[in-house]
Write a structure and sequence with these properties.
The protein is mostly helical. Helix content is 52%, strand content 5%. The protein binds calcium ion (CA) (2 copies).
C-alpha cells in the first residue's frame, strides 16, 4: 500500500516536471499579446492545435496561460511554417 502511494506521488511529480517543459512558451504562441491563445495562434504548433479542445477547459475557444500550462507536453518542437 505504501509503495502504491509512493508510486503515485512519483508519477505526479514527473507529470509536473514534464508540464514545465513546454518548448514553445505561452508568449511565443500568443502572437498578438492579448493574453490568450486562439485556435489560429495554436495552429502554428501542430501538436497544440490537436490538443486545443482538451486544453480549453472552459470551452471559450481561447487558451489562457493556466490552460496552456495544464496541457500535456505535446511536442518537442514547433511545427515548421
Ligand atoms: Ca492572442
Ligand atoms: Ca479557455
Amino acid at each position: 500500500m505504501k509503495r502504491l502511494i509512493l508510486g503515485f506521488a512519483l508519477g505526479m511529480s514527473a507529470a509536473t516536471a514534464m508540464a514545465a517543459e513546454h518548448t514553445v512558451s505561452f508568449s511565443e504562441l500568443d502572437v498578438n499579446r492579448d493574453g490568450a491563445i486562439t485556435r489560429k495562434e495554436a495552429a502554428s504548433f501542430a501538436a497544440l492545435e490537436k490538443a486545443f479542445d482538451t486544453a480549453d477547459a472552459n470551452n471559450n475557444g481561447l487558451l489562457d496561460p493556466a490552460e496552456y500550462l495544464s496541457t500535456e507536453p505535446v511536442g518537442r518542437a514547433p511545427a515548421t511554417r
